[in-house]
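ugh ok fine here u go
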Amino acid sequence: MIDHELYGQAARFEEALMVSAINNQETTAIKLFVNGFGTTNVDGFVSTGFDGLQLFSTAHTRLDGGANLRNRPSTDVNLGVTGLQNALIDFHTQNLDDRGRPQLIRPKLLIVYPNDLFTARELLQSEYKPGTSNNEINAIREEGLSFMVSHYLTDVDDWFLIGDQHDLNLIWDQKPRGGMEEDFDQEVIKRKVVQGFVVGHGEFRGCWGTSGAT
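structure:
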């Protein structure tokens, strides 16, 4: 095939293998968020953390038996001014350690589905408060958040905040490596890409999420 093909397609096969490997990384890692609202293990992915609860919960426990903490709203909300403001307040007030002491974790990244691309941009970059004719400043802008659109989220209403410290992990056993083998007698070429990693979380602190209002 390499000898007789005209359009360079054979040389692209190994590139396609690497693209597939990267896609596997993304679709596995996003399960931290997609499966973060329940405790059901999906495709071997363990959804619970150290406290035995899902990543995003309204009832995270503390080792000292103090008041439960939340990193999800009591009623899930779509992305908007009020929803994001309340999420930021939760982020600053609910990130306590197991003795109830404040954790110095700052929200840094907003993760949204493509449907919320323009909403996120308006919320974070507008000089004045979005959606109002009053001459109010956009107080959210002062938080200095950045945002990322994830094409791997599966629910159009999901959105998340991630802090400058968190316990969301992708741990490599073996980073992607390619390989090739030629069979002299059969004139056959074999190509492969091998990788190994695990994804999961321990602590819930440093992240906040909602599955949206619909």
